[in-house]
Design a protein that fits this description.
Length: 352
Amino acid sequence: MELFFKKEIHEARFLDPNDEFQEKLVRFEVRTDSFTGSKARVLAHRWRLPKGSLDSFSISKSKEKCPFCPERVNLSTPKFSPSITPSGRIRHGQATVLPNAFPYSQYSGVVVFSDDHHIPLNLFTPEILFNALIASTVYIKRVQEVDGSVAYTSINWNYMPPAGGGIIHPHLQIVVDKKPTNLHGKLIKASLDYEKSRGSNYWYDLIRFEQQRAERYLFYCGKAVFLTSFCPRGMLGEVLSIFNETTSLQDVTQDRWMCFAKGLSKILFCFHHLHVDSFNMTLFASLEKDEEFWVQARIIPRVSLPPLGTSDVNYFEKGHDEVITIISPEDLAGEINAFAEQKHNKITKDGR
Ligand SMILES: [Zn+2]
């Protein structure tokens, strides 16, 4: 595994205006994950907790024209054709599945979590998340029934504007397609190549490696294992959740979904306490059994940087396909573990 994770320490010097122009030495890391092909530069010296999220006035204002609020959802959102469902929309518990009005794949759905217009990250219970995930699978299975050629799916989430969320009302975006997206395809190919060259499963090896190193490992619930990525895809790092020995969406039983929902709820609670109230999530799954590639999710905290609301995506990521991150993955794991412990104690104490 060490062969895949490379870390170089680089140095830069300048004359510091905050220290009478004495020479200042700054160290940063250049990380490479040869398996995923990603690179990140860790500038841990810039780490400080971001402050502030979307204000309550903007949230209540956005409710006035929200297409997903219960008084508007039936009239202002699209319906599926009868071939998908005769009722036009799929309902599961509190969740509603409808077609994406801005589709970017042949089968592009939206799952509205509930009637609640805004849910702070510390209040996403496992039940709310589980319900929306199961609603997603109802839609995905329905697509499989009408089109046997689809083979890949992803469950995606842009939460709040800093993460590209154009609608505050919590919703997931589902893609079902014949071909995987770029990263999904790269991960599948790399998993196959690894199996062929080493005779073992990359995800099995990665989980064991991270458990033994205990630097980025977070926790597990049943088959859902959570850790921070060595080479993150966001300025504030990345959480990776791997469904142990789960080789297709079919393998994700209700128990496994609930375990993932419990872990995700914990991660979102921790983000909230780190003053990060926005994130992207992508869950990749093959629809047919794929022994080499296990179902997995990437959860990337997002933030607008104060005081100007500056984007956390810059030319390095856009133009060079490398990420500058301001917290080391090991420090992020430490922060999350500390808050996860608090949540665990609170659950034990309150019985919720
Ligand atoms: Zn709403």
